[in-house]
Design a protein that fits this description.
single chain, alpha+beta, Aminopeptidase, eight-stranded mixed sheet, 5 helices, 8 strands, 29% helix, binds coenzyme A
Length: 167
């Protein structure tokens, strides 16, 4: 398992198959999935398939969605990271945390360090972020990491706000 980055309270590392149960907990909570155009997971096998088919292939070129671990007790909080979107040739900042860990600034802390990693270590020219227009917590995190609103759009049939930060 590869450590990607460290922030004051968090470690961000690559997922492994041993995280399937944690991912199942995350993606089976309707509150977590509320604004996401994504089917909830129901079984460990579903979660293993997401890891194998979606998450692991993102780990090319040091990118991807990374497991967020709380340093003080090694607890899994969720994920945060930078995903390459081939359709627009751009890199997207994303985050998703277990509901019991919302509201402690963890998403902002992880996201800030992902942006810094993207610019300093990967020399990305810019990073984008997208959130459902009603996903206020997510939009707040994008704004707190310094992203600027670009436009509204429709993605996967959902109305989204698109943000961007320049290196
Ligand atoms: C988005 C998410 C990761 C945020 O996690 P978090 O740990 O609560 O984020 P933070 O604590 O770093 O910051 C959240 C900010 O949004 C604010 N916020 C939360 N809910 C809000 C609401 N309903 N209206 C307005 N602001 C809200 C918080 O007050 C905080 O801002 P502040 O620090 O200025 O007070 C979490 O809500 C989540 O996992 N949601 C489900 C998955 C998801 O939607 N991911 C984003 C997809 S685009």
């Amino acid at each position: 398992m590869e450590l990607i980055l460290e922030s004051p309270r968090l470690l961000l590392r690559q997922f492994t198959l041993a995280d399937a149960d944690s991912l199942l907990q995350l993606n089976s909570n309707p509150a977590v999935m509320q604004y996401l155009h994504e089917a909830p997971l129901h079984t460990i096998a579903d979660a293993e398939k997401v890891l194998t088919d979606i998450i692991f292939p993102q780990y090319k070129n040091k990118l991807g969605r990374w497991a967020v671990i709380l340093k003080e007790n090694n607890q899994f909080l969720g994920w945060c990271g930078l995903k390459y979107l081939a359709e627009n040739d751009e890199v997207d900042l994303g985050y998703r945390l277990l509901q019991e860990h919302w509201g402690h600034g963890y998403a902002t802390e992880g996201a800030l360090h992902c942006v810094e990693y993207g610019f300093k270590k990967l020399s990305l020219p810019f990073i984008i972020g997208r959130a459902h227009v009603d996903n206020k917590a997510s939009i707040k995190v994008l704004e707190k990491v310094g992203m600027k609103f670009v436009r509204e759009g429709v993605e996967d049939e959902c109305p989204v706000k698109i943000y961007r930060i320049q290196a």
